[in-house]
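Help!! Second protein's tokens look totally different from the first
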Amino acid sequence: MPRKTQTAEVAAAPETEAGRFTDEELARIQEAGFESVASHAADYEEFSDSYPVIKDKRELVATQFVSLEWRFHEGDNGEFVSAVIMRRDNSLAILNDGGTGICRQYRELTDRIGRQRGPVLHKGGLSTSEYWFNSDTGAISRKRPDDGGDWKKATTFYLT
């Protein structure tokens, strides 16, 4: 079923690009305020065929989900994976990871099954490994060091 969307008519001067607001229109919009404008705005989900991105991987710890498909990409910090997953409530979401846990495991899974597509059930959801990381030296410790270095608590997530 097609989604209903709201449309707004914006008068454009002949010399301006169609659909662009004039400075005066933007000033009136700003004066109306966020709440007023937002109450008339179409929800982005009406126009997007994308799925929400998991922002906090902890929501998947010990929570079953299914990996449907995954793709590898090159980012600013090296390779990362984007996986489309299905949660128990049938909702779909994107799980991104560029670490030594999930990304490496999806790479190993791809090599093992010869494709980047499931479905693959993760009965235990995600698990975690917590450790201390020294950003000055790159050192890792399982317990909090007391040497005064720049140690920060870190977490690696794993597929189960």
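Here's the second one for comparison:
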Amino acid sequence: MKPEITTPTSECAPEFALRLSPTPRGARLARLLAAQQLRDWGVAGPAAEAAELVVAELANNAVLHGRVPGRDFELRMERAGDRVHLELSDARADRRPSPHPSPEEGGYGLLLVAALATTWGVKARTVGKTVWATVPL
């Protein structure tokens, strides 16, 4: 599978998007390519690390809980001033994420997202859902 990448369309609102296979390799690539895009935008340090962790968690969730055979997941990033808006879309509308206050084994991911992002949520799509987060820079 070849990822589809959209390059920044303007200096004011750089945007990045790609589709990846819903596999552990696809989730890993999402984090690596998001990290590279943040570097290209000049974002470094704790802000870049926070955004990378959010992408990693949301991509992992898309692979584990949003996978539909034959359907990719999509990563979209937009830098706007002092923040980066992240979106991970998958094909499973019926599996909406919700943080568990006392996770048993694992399950801390959305608590991490909530701690690192100023805001996050879920929105419906024609097919599937999009989990989004805004991370301050």
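Reply: Different proteins will give different token patterns, so don't panic. The two ends are 32 Å apart (CA to CA).
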